[in-house]
Amino acid sequence: EGPSRRPTAPPYQLIPGDRYNFALGVLVAFGLAGLKNLSEDKLKKLGAPPFLKWNLNAYTTWNCALLTLRIILKQQQWDPFLLVNSMGIFLSFRTAFAQGLDENMRKKIRSLGFELSRLEFVLLDHLLHTLPPMLLLAALVQRGTRVHPMNALHVLALTSWFSFRQVASLDVQAVYMPHPFYRGLLAYLVGVFATPPLVDALIVRSRRRVLQWLIVMLIPYLTTKLDPNLLREYNFEAGLARARQQLLSAAAARTAKRIGSGRGSGANGMPRVQSDTPLVLESARRSAEERRNIMG
Q1: What's the chain look like in SS3?
Q2: Which domain holds residue 36?
Q3: What is the average pLDDT score of the chain?
Q4: How many domains does the chain have?
Q5: Origin, by domain of life (predicted)?
Q6: Same domain, 218 and 240
Q7: Is 174 part of any domain?
Q8: Whole-model pTM over 0.85
């Protein structure tokens, strides 16, 4: 029996013995998390639109950054992890924005200064959410590469880091738009944990097991798709969120104008502490009461 072969080190390995090059991935995640500290003023100085700051804080962007780095630096050993993550994102997005709720996302993007037609939005949606898991799945099955279940736990660690970094909560509706968060989270978890056995079933060509796991993965989406009250409830929530954002933007603009023009300054030349917060809170309170009346 010949000597055992050592695993080949991946390209650009940062730490000897790290055969999956986790160190590189962690540094990328750390850098992506730091992008939240970029203020709008800094981005304006760079000539970047508001859409860019929002997009840098989206989890799909994190996934696309890792995918791009995987291609450029030839990190093939990341493929199982990226498949699990991409599949979770795919199922979560399809579930959370079922019944056409993704139109609210398109409107938000438009409000940030990036106009997209419905066709352009759908094409970009499939490019960013659908294509990555499909290509990775096909590549891994073709190579006969199994996906270790530990990849699911690694993905959950990254997702948790993202969520608590952005909004200090697993509920990331504030980053995107109002949507059935718990259903989307369930779809994500199902996708993450069902992907390894699905890949195994595809490799051994077990049609029964493939069908079984596909049905499991579709359950959160189908229950959301068939909910008769979903569209009305979350379209209302999205409209309320847009109204709040408009109020906050108007309040900020008025405050900046007062400070810039020198009005409202005290005897020492410092601006008085004036705020439009009461107006915003009162409007939010009235909106909440209207919602209760409508939904009740």
Answers
A1: CCCCCCCCCCCCCCCCCCCCCHHHHHHHHHHHHHHHHCCHHHHHHCCCCHHHHHHHCCHHHHHHHHHHHHHHCCCHHHHHHHHHHHHHHHHHHHHHCHHHCHHHHHHHHHHCCCCCCHHHHHHHHHHHHHHHHHHHHHHHHHHCCCCCCHHHHHHHHHHHHHHHHHCCCCCCCCCCCCCCHHHHHHHHHHHHHHHHHHHHHHHHCCHHHHHHHHHHHHHHHHHHHCCCCHHHHHHHHHHHHHHHHHHHHHHHHHHHHHHHHCCCECCCCCECCCCCHHHHHHHHHHHHHHHHHHHC
A2: 22-227
A3: 80
A4: 2
A5: Eukaryota
A6: no
A7: yes
A8: no
